[in-house]
Amino acid sequence: MPAPVIAVCCSGEGTNLQAIIRAIRRGRLRARVGVMVSDNPGALCLRRAIAAGIPTVVIDPRGFGSREAFDRALSRILEKAGARLIVLAGFMRLLSPWFVRRYRWRVLNIHPALLPAFPGTHAVRDALRHGVRVSGVTVHFVDSQVDHGPILLQEAVPLKAGDTEENLLKRIHRVEHRLYPIGIDLVLRGRVTVRGRDVRIAGR
Amino acid sequence: MPAPVIAVCCSGEGTNLQAIIRAIRRGRLRARVGVMVSDNPGALCLRRAIAAGIPTVVIDPRGFGSREAFDRALSRILEKAGARLIVLAGFMRLLSPWFVRRYRWRVLNIHPALLPAFPGTHAVRDALRHGVRVSGVTVHFVDSQVDHGPILLQEAVPLKAGDTEENLLKRIHRVEHRLYPIGIDLVLRGRVTVRGRDVRIAGR
Q1: Where are the beta strands (DSSP E) in chain B?
Q2: ipTM of the shown complex
Q3: How does residue B204 score in pLDDT terms, banded at 50, 70 and 90?
Q4: pTM of the prediction?
Q5: Cα distance between residue B51 and residue A155, in whole Å
Q6: A161–B201: do the CB atoms touch at under 8 Å?
Q7: Does one domain contain both B73 and B114?
Q8: Contact (Cβ atoms closer than 8 angstroms) between residue B107 and residue B192
Q9: In CATH, what number is assigned to the domain containing residue B144?
């Protein structure tokens, strides 16, 4: 059987994309990245995908009248690639209710905090400013609220005395790069069922 | 030098009070509990305190016209006991802004979640219902907002598959009973400074 196809959506550096590519190469994640979609033509993730032989598509949001129009174009790309799972990896766009409904429990996101603490785009900075002693990483399914959907995996990252945003981010990224391929693999192997906020992992 | 005096305020079972008594007996916490205050005349914590030879005071909130009037009575008890630090251990009362200001950074609380996630009185149940994979314990200074003040210590408690509220609560309590005496000891040894939300622990 051919490996299941995933699509990765990314707006930035693409270090999680790189971690996914590495996990596939090392046989820790049985998948094929059928397409890498970016809304940012200058994003580094595009170069990483091209270097790995992954087809890339850039969709410029300025060409669309509404969020849903963009998402419909995105959907056409995902369908063409035959993606079974959509993996958000630093994709800086809100998805429309239409998209979220259409791909219910088929979109994963990763967040650099222990949700529900510190949602939003400055999670690491917010956690530091709040003075927490423990933050972490969350892999979750996407629902219609930002950084809110059912949680698949979480791992704690303890802070250290004198931690800077840079230090902490580095340790959080290391956990992300290990955790995301595990989460994707669990879903693709059909071991995950979602009921409301209750996410069960078979054999765990 | 005599051990510094603390006051413990408790409305319920008093398992954290028991952990504090044990830590003092074992020499892990250099302190003396000068008084145990409860707002609940039927609370089990009163019996624990009496069994340990700790003076107890019950203040019935119904005897007071306002929150501040109650807190002024509480303050008189704390002053009479010579308490340097006030330790809330399941004290089910909101403290008035007057009290919080008067005892700024001299009141500690413990919460069965990784704040700012799951504040309030049903933290463990709320965390389970949200479907988190990691919860924990927070020891924090009390400010005028509920479960919000500067964080002294936190420790993560990972959830297990099929965890019930009872199981999880038991593991969280075990961490509380270890963590709270450590936090109290750090403050009493003068190793803790608070600036805004930034809590520094000397020599850590």
Answers
A1: 5-9, 32-38, 56-58, 85-88, 107-111, 134-141, 151-158, 192-195, 198-201
A2: 0.94
A3: confident
A4: 0.95
A5: 41
A6: yes
A7: no
A8: no
A9: 3.40.50.170
